[in-house]
Structure formats: C-alpha cells, structure tokens
C-alpha cells in the first residue's frame, strides 16, 4: 500500500483531488488508481485529479486527469483550483504562469479564493443551424435552449457526445439559456460521462457564443448549478476572440491521507 497526501478543491462545485508532485513522488499513479481516487463511493470523490508538477520555464506545470483515469484536455475550473493550491504551497507572487496540455497560461488571485485564469485564444467557431462547436482548451458543443432547467442534460448530452461525429474523441455538451444580463449553463462532461455542477472551458465556450456582433470587450456573468463565474474577453473578428479570462472562486474543501494499493 502507498500513502498519498491529497487536497480536495472545488470551483463552483466542479471538484478535484490535487497532489503536490513537484518532487515526482506521485509519478507512479496509474489511470486505474486515479479512477479509484475519484470514485464518489469507494474513493475521495471528484470530477478529476491534478498534479502540481515542477517546471523549468514556468511557475509550475499542470497535469490533469479526468475521473475515468485518462489524461484530459484543459480544465478551466481545474486550472483555477490548481492556481489557488500552488499559491497555498508558496509558489509565485500572486501572478502565476504555468504550462498545461494546451499551452501556457497566466493567472492572478484576488484575495485567497478568487482566481482569474487566462484561456487560449479562439480563432474559429463552427456555427450550425442549432448549435456552436469550438475548442477552448477542450472541445465544446453549445446549444441554446428556452428552459435550461427542464433539459435532461444526462441523456441529451450523452446522445450528442456519443453520436457518429463525436463518439471516437468525445465532446463536452453545453445547454445555455440567456439569464438576466448573462447566461445559465449546464454541461455534460466527457471523461466524467455525466453532468457536472460547472465546467470552466464549457462556460468559456458558452460565453463566447453569447457575444453580440460588435467587435469589442465583453463581460459575461455566468450562472452554473455550482455558483457564479464571469468570462471576460475581446471579440476581434466574426468568430475570433482573444484576451479571454475565466474568473471565479476556487476553494480548499479539505486535505487528508489515503492509502492506495
């Protein structure tokens, strides 16, 4: 049996197991063990697991695994939680630069629990008759609906995620309703294969598709099942966006030890 010292973080209900792996002490973790740790009945319980890794060129490197144990694409809320954790571990000066699977990221903290994370620029959005499809570090299918609370996110999301086009690689599926001066977003996440309380890259994708025709700076408040986020960005072309920031809370829930075989 190996003992793991872990931290549990959540960002608007999107929850993660995090380990400080800067000395490489958890490099032995297998995908089966990650899956076990993320299990909500037999493990710690989480939507994903992250390792805070050392980097020669950045403040740290982010390694992200989906709850199914497979290495994932970029996770926005995960990135924000890992920034909060890195700060807790004494990394950086409140402005951090890190490397993730989709490239380099910049982040800043407002107080202890609010993290602003810069996302990758988006240079293309596919716009179909009833949907948008774009990549914000992870692939996202976005569909606007009249009543987001009435949507069967699990079954409708699963149907799209496993359809002929997306089955092999998978996609995340977002259902979006304009709400007050922003949007309400619910997301089916691949790798979790269920609805999550919030999805950072999904919220980002939804906010970009909600922008008006004007090329200018936008601030979009976003409501999720797990709480409030905010997406700030500049629209630079018909389907082009830069200076994209995902902003919201990132909170330590608890830390502990667990033995794993």
Describe the structure.
This protein is an alpha+beta fold. It is built from four helices and 17 strands. The protein has helices at 31-38, 76-88, 153-161, 200-210; strands spanning 2-11, 14-20, 48-53, 60-66, 95-100, 103-110, 114-118, 126-127, 132-135, 139-144, 172-179, 182-189, 194-196, 217-224, 227-237, 240-249, 251-260. The model has no long low-confidence stretch (mean pLDDT 97). A hairpin with a 4-residue loop joins strand 8 (126-127) and strand 9. The chain has a 17-stranded mixed sheet that branches.
Write the layout of secondary structure elements.
Layout lengths: L1 E10 L2 E7 L10 H8 L9 E6 L6 E7 L9 H13 L6 E6 L2 E8 L3 E5 L7 E2 L4 E4 L3 E6 L8 H9 L10 E8 L2 E8 L4 E3 L3 H11 L6 E8 L2 E11 L2 E10 L1 E10 L1
List keywords for this structure.
single chain; 261 residues; alpha+beta; 17 strands
Tell me the helix content.
Answer: 10-25%
Query: Average pLDDT across residues?
Result: 97
Order of helices and strands: EEHEEHEEEEEEHEEEHEEEE
Structural class: alpha+beta
Give a brief rundown of this model.
The protein has helices at about 30-40, 75-90, 155-160, 200-210; strands at about 1-10, 15-20, 50-55, 60-65, 95-100, 105-110, 115-120, 125, 130-135, 140-145, 170-180, 180-190, 195, 215-225, 225-235, 240-250, 250-260.
């Amino acid at each position: 049996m190996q003992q793991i010292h872990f931290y549990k973080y959540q960002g608007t209900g999107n929850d993660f197991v995090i380990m400080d792996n800067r000395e490489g002490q958890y490099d032995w973790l297998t995908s089966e063990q990650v899956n076990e740790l993320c299990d909500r009945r037999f493990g710690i319980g989480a939507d994903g697991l992250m390792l805070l890794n050392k980097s020669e060129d950045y403040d740290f490197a982010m390694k992200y695994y989906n709850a199914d144990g497979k290495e994932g694409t970029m996770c926005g809320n995960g990135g924000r939680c890992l920034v909060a954790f890195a700060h807790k571990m004494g990394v950086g000066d409140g402005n951090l630069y890190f490397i993730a699977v989709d490239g380099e990221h910049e982040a800043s903290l407002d107080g202890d629990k609010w993290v602003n994370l810069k996302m990758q620029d988006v240079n293309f959005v596919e716009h179909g008759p009833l949907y948008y499809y774009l990549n914000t570090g992870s692939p996202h299918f976005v569909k606007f609906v009249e009543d987001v609370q009435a949507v069967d996110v699990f079954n409708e999301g699963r149907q799209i995620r496993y359809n002929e086009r997306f089955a092999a690689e998978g996609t995340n599926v977002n259902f979006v309703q304009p709400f007050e001066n922003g949007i309400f977003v619910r997301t089916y996440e691949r790798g979790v294969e269920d609805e999550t309380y919030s999805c950072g890259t999904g919220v980002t994708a939804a906010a970009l598709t909600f922008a008006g025709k004007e090329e200018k700076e936008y601030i979009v408040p976003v409501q999720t099942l797990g709480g409030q986020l905010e997406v700030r960005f500049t629209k630079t072309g018909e389907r082009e966006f830069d200076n994209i920031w995902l902003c919201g809370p990132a909170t330590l829930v608890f830390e502990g030890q667990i033995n794993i075989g």
